[in-house]
Amino acid sequence: SAVISQKPSRDICQRGTSLTIQCQVDSQVTMMFWYRQQPGQSLTLIATANQGSEATYESGFVIDKFPISRPNLTFSTLTVSNMSPEDSSIYLCSVEVGLYEQYFGPGTRLTVT
Amino acid sequence: LAKTTQPISMDSYEGQEVNITCSHNNIATNDYITWYQQFPSQGPRFIIQGYKTKVTNEVASLFIPADRKSSTLSLPRVSLSDTAVYYCLVGDIGTNAGKSTFGDGTTLTVKP
Predict the structure, then answer these.
(1) Residue B41 forms contact with A (CB below 8 Å)
(2) pLDDT tens for residues A34-90?
(3) Is the four-CA dihedral A70, A71, A77, A82 of positive or negative sign?
(4) At A87, phi and psi to the nearest 5?
């Protein structure tokens, strides 16, 4: 198993600004993932973050908007840049442990005004 | 990636057994089936995973027929605290788990 923490847990931001979300894992993991979950909706994968290489983004998500860092095997950040109200969502990080099993952080609830 | 179809919602009463079925007609040979549970304001939590036949753990059972085109998550004697959204995912164990697609999920409401 893995214990994941995220900071901040929630934030209210003004449009045009940027927010960096931190994800910390209690053990070393190869794969970390960032998801977005809009209110009442399912989860959508934003990108996969591997240590030592650039993140791999899913269709519809670009690095300029969601830059990701992965400086070591226990930490990653996701930045939501130049925010608009459409970016209001819950952002979750997850890690892969064992055979095809994911553990998720508690999420960061972002509101853009 | 195999697309999954689940009922949007289900209601049950405390103490009953709940069965949630997921259809995945295009499941591939290397695909595993994984179920997650999500409570409000929390990230999803791994429940159970299987490839074929039946898998049981302390939380649930997973039934997979021989053709693997569907699977059923069985929750024995549910309680109010089992009210949550349940997601069925299908994906290749040769790829990373994060590449699986979360479907719409099934909102289970357990009533007293």
Answers:
(1) yes
(2) 999 998 899 999 999 988 888 999 999 999 999 999 999 999 999 999 999 999 999
(3) negative
(4) -85, -5
Which residues from chain B sit within 8 angstroms of residue A109, using beta carbons?
41
Give the contacts of B26 (CB within 8 A, at least 6 positions apart).
Answer: B2, B3
Is residue A106 within 8 Å of residue A5, measured between CB atoms?
A: yes
A92: tokens are 């979750």
Tell me the C-alpha to C-alpha distance, in Å, between residue B24 and each of A78, A113, B1, B61, B87.
32, 40, 10, 18, 13
Residues B49-107 have pLDDT tens digits of: 999 999 999 999 999 999 999 999 999 999 999 999 999 988 875 555 556 678 889 99
Q: Which of B97, B101, B103 shows the shortest C-beta gap to A100?
A: B97
Taking the CA atoms of A67, A69, A70 and A76 in sequence, report the sign of the dihedral they define. negative
